Amino acid sequence: MAIGSLARRKATTILSSNRYLYKYSFSLNRGFASGSDENDVVVIGGGPGGYVTAIKAAQLGLKTTCIEKRGALGGTCLNVGCIPSKALLHSSHMYHEAQHSFANHGVKFSSVEVDLPAMMAQKDKAVAGLTRGIEGLFKKNKVNYVKGYGKFLSPSEISVDTLEGGNTVVKGKNIIVATGSDVKSLPGLTIDEKRIVSSTGALALTEVPKKLVVIGAGYIGLEMGSVWGRLGSEVTVVEFGPGIVPSMDGEVRKQFQRSLEKQKMKFKLNTKVVSVDTVGDGVKLTLEPAAGGEQTTLEADVVLVSAGRVPFTSGLGLDKIGVETDKAGRILVNERFASNVPGVYAIGDVIPGPMLAHKAEEDGVACVEFIAGKEGHVDYDLVPGVCYTHPEVASVGKTEEQVKALGVDYRVGKFPFLANSRAKAIDDAEGIVKILAEKETDKILGVHIMSPNAGELIHEAVLAMHYGASSEDIARTCHAHPTMSEALKEAAMATYDKPIHI
């Protein structure tokens, strides 16, 4: 019997899905809804979670209304987050490549310069087109779209202050809260989106700052630091913790930091911001060690506050109808995304779990499937994460530190992109694939990739893990040559046996 088959039969239960512990479990009795209710489903929020939820509900035959306060669908992700940041990451990478790499490929020109207004216009064009696309999907699927700020009057009624200045009441048998998250503020820092900016302001700067300080070494801070660093800023990242991106595998994280340092990004770890002085043209930060000690100062033209995000649940009237939340403001739900108030559900950033657009989408689809009498499912152990710098870093499953903490015997397989023929051919070979597999069964426990396009490569691993694959299963799968994905195959070979090309 192949090891891959054995893995699916014998895989230990100690690594079974690490789902959230929900406080409530009860029947989905929606008997309170009257025949006069206009909608089967009302979704508050039109971000990736909200608009996907609304479309799926309509596809399932449920009469659906989506309420969005921004006046533009797509939420933070499309309007001031994922999409515009990736547009700028790509544009700034092209500029950086033109400066530093094109000549190596025989492409030479006398000069290259940044046209920041044109770069911003390209970003805005992408955002506008995608927003209109979602509106088109709403029309196609017959989703009613209400532009305004909604709050609960009752578990089946939402009062909406419309953007036109009026008010309307939207009724629904099932209300789904999908209002997403907001920037986490820090004491003593007032975000003006000019000198002290959130990610929103960092996406709309009118000139390249000479000195940019990023507070927080998470995904968003490193991505935006990369954008402006490529365009000419001197970037310093201040992080309270001992390392960047704490959710990342430790070995990969160290390689990633070295890569960013080679790109001239500076790091001040184990450091906290004590105060900020905005007198004058610039910004002066007072810093000290996280454990206390001698203070130092750091000057900047712009400071990006990127210390995380918090659920956006204030002003919704949740307390008025008795919806219970935790200390962080997240709505407590059961395995069917139902709150303690019958008929009220929540998904995405407003409930526990990673604050990721694709996680919110999966939540929403599963939620309305439950409402429609079907079975929904989200495996939170297999939600991939990607940092869209260059190289990108993508991961799914457990880190080596997490596997060790569980006390599981495991094997590690690694393969460097320096030994990958496609990476060498395109002269972009920095990075590594790392696979963790259970020793007894060879079942894959986690995959971590640092490379160009790691965010695309990771999904082979996601699919493999969804079906309980072993590392041998990937290793024995034919991969096209020459491709970057062969590095994943070689790492899998290194996990259960030996790689060929190193």
UniProtKB/TrEMBL annotation:
Its EC number is 1.8.1.4. Binds 1 FAD per subunit. It is an enzyme of class 1 (oxidoreductase). Its cofactor is FAD. The keyword NAD applies. Pfam families: Pyr_redox_2, Pyr_redox_dim. One of its GO terms (cellular component) is oxoglutarate dehydrogenase complex. FAD binds at K86, G150, T179, G180, S181, D349, M355, L356, A357, H358. One of its GO terms (biological process) is 2-oxoglutarate metabolic process. InterPro entries: Class-I_Pyr_Nuc-Dis_Oxidored (IPR050151), FAD/NAD-bd_sf (IPR036188), FAD/NAD-binding_dom (IPR023753), FAD/NAD-linked_Rdtase_dimer_sf (IPR016156), Lipoamide_DH (IPR006258), Pyr_nuc-diS_OxRdtase (IPR001100), Pyr_nucl-diS_OxRdtase_dimer (IPR004099), Pyr_OxRdtase_I_AS (IPR012999). Belongs to the class-I pyridine nucleotide-disulfide oxidoreductase family. This is Dihydrolipoyl dehydrogenase. It comes from Anisodus tanguticus.
